[in-house]
Amino acid sequence: MRSVLHFIGLGDLLGPILGSISWPMLLLVFVALMGAYLLLKRMPRRKTDDVTFVRLPFLSKAEVMFLVALETSVYPEYRVFARVPLRDLILANCEDLSNRTSAQNRINLKTVDFVLVDPQRFEVHKVVELDDRTHDDVRRKDRDAFIDDVLGRAGLPIIHCKCKMFYDPASLRSQLKLPPVLLET
Questions:
Q1: Are residues 90 and 170 in the same domain?
Q2: Which of 21, 36, 110, 144 could form a disulfide with 86 if both were Cys (CB 3.0 to 4.6 A apart)?
């Protein structure tokens, strides 16, 4: 065995480690590893051939109407992004790994409706939630309270806007706590 290791240039490195292992034992280990590799490679993967996938609309009609009004109200001061994952805005920070992981996992699957972003620096300035009738559900209220708490503790303002049939840009700016737009004459 040592002569083979010296021949391939590994004698000084692996000789003391593998010198006491017999050829049959080394061959048995190699065959076992190859067998395990081939077995794992042939294991069936979860197939999705029998699953139908359906495209969903990106935004509801109410969200589209609000987005148009929101963009009109805040342009050119802000850019508006819709359905932003909360994990892209917030990172849980805690020295205890278990607590940090638990908090981050609660954040990871949630999204916020709209985010107002500074167009030059791409800094998030505000989060805007469109509250329709689903926000009256107890579980939804718990979710909203969690998101409000997380964003508040991160120093990121969140504004809740009631879903309406029509949005006045001036009143929307006021609700967003933005100064009124002065029209040039």
A1: yes
A2: 110
In what side-by-side order are the strands of the sheet with 158-162? 79-85, 111-117, 124-131, 158-162
Count of CB atoms situated within 10 Å of the CB of 111: 13
pLDDT tens for 51-89 read 888 999 999 999 999 999 999 999 999 999 999 999 999
Contacts 24+ apart (CB under 8 A), 55-61: 58/82, 58/83, 59/83
* pTM of structure: 0.69
Structure tokens at 3: 């002569």
Do 117 and 123 contact (CB within 8 A), yes or no?
Answer: yes
Report d(CA 112, CA 84) in Å as an integer: 5
Bridge partner list, 111: 85
- What are the DSSP calls for 22-59, one per residue? -HHHHHHHHHHHHHHHHHHHHSPPPP-TT-------SS
Identify any residues that bridge with 30 across adjacent strands, giving them in sequence order: none
Is 185 part of a structural domain of the chain? no
pLDDT digits (tens, 9 = 90+) for 160-172: 999 999 999 899 9
HSE-up of 23 (CA within 13 Å, CB side)? Answer: 5
> In this structure, are 66 and 140 located in the same domain?
yes
